[in-house]
Amino acid sequence: MKGKLNNLINLSEKGTTMKQELLAGFVSFFTIVYIIAVNSSILADAGIPMQAAVWATILTCVAGCLMMGIWGNLPLIIVPGMGLNAMFTYTFVHSMGLTWQEALAVVFIAGLLFAIIAFTPLSDILATAIPSSLKDSISVGLGLFLSLLGLEKSQLIVRGEHSLISLGDISSPQVIVFILTLILAVILFLRNVSANFLITIFVGTIIAWMFGLVDMSSLKNGFGSASGDYGSVFGAMTFASMTSITFWIAVFSLTMVLVFENIGLISGQLGQLNQSEKYGKAFRVTAISAMLSGIFGSSPTVSTVETAAGITAGGRTGITSIVTGLLFLLSIFFIPFVSIIPNSAIAPILIIIGGLMLQNVKSINFEDLSEVIPAFLIIIMIPFSYSIADGIAFGFIAYPIAKLVVGKASQISISLYIISGLFLLNFILHGV
Fold this sequence. Notes:
70% of the residues lie in helices and 3% in strands. It has 20 helices and four strands.
């Protein structure tokens, strides 16, 4: 039976074994399982009940990983994207004034548009239309934004009147616990300890509990209460705001980030696997998963960077993703425990992930100022404007202007002119 299964999924041709695939699935899960706590915390900031947010995150991860494993037969791990969850909560809900139900509708429509792009030649057109400097600067800007969110969650910095940022009370128990947890997180990360983020969350929660900062009420309510909350979130998206410009600006911005982030992630991961010919299938699976996220009640999914851990552990086929998805399914039984994790245990992970995303700045050509200035605008405006969509808009508007000024109009595609014009129209309509 084992031999027949090996032949069916071409394990030997891929240079792997069933044991190796199973191990890679476990490695992938324990590398990315922190996303349950982190994503749920950010969704809760949008107003989604915390335990329901945990359910939404888990089921979204299960669906994404199983689809990639069964349909794509690839070891890519599909989970809610860091940065996209921040865009969902802090841009769409907090800045643009959408309800979380309306923001879920944005996720669904953006996912649908993503799917249309993925299943048509538009995917290739857009992949070549957007300069790499803009793609890289979006990742860097998102990294700074995540780090800012981490610092705010830790209460090390606080946002006061008129959104002015200042240093918090360093002597407060919350900040002390955060600093202790951050030190632990950095040590584990630099030492490359397996499941370092998971260990950080676990130990950080214990430290917070010792300081009396952990709310244990969800453990008393138990599993049944958590599942009851989810009924009000699954399929709760509402299209009441579809006639508003704000709604479609959110859709446009999210679609842009979804498409370009996944183009970069999937291309790199398949290159690592030497299976670049499967790009189209992987891209389509990711698009369908992102669309389903809105139904499940979560921010959209991406092929996460932690996929590299499973590939390094020997994952070469969809078995790796299937194992990871099934482990996410089993984690449903630990939902009450996830709900007690404090912000002080989440914040260090946001900061470290944000720091990792800054590495993309090395790919920007600093010798060409017409590339640097638009990229710089994206990088600084995403965190400073507290809006991912507005930050991206500044860079995309500046790019064709910079190229025209230096006489490099030939480097601008028609598609980029259209995208830049749409961002400019957005600002004009909002009186910016």
